[in-house]
Amino acid sequence: MSTAVKTNKKGKAINVVLFILFFLFAIVQLNDPDPILWFSIYFLTAILCLTANYKSIPKKILWILVIAFLLFALYHFSYFMDWIKIDHKEELFGEMVYKKPYLEGTREFLGLLIAAGALFYQIKSTKNNS
Question: Which residues, 6 or more positions from 29, have their beta carbon under 8 angstroms from its beta carbon?
Answer without folding.
Answer: 35, 38, 39, 42
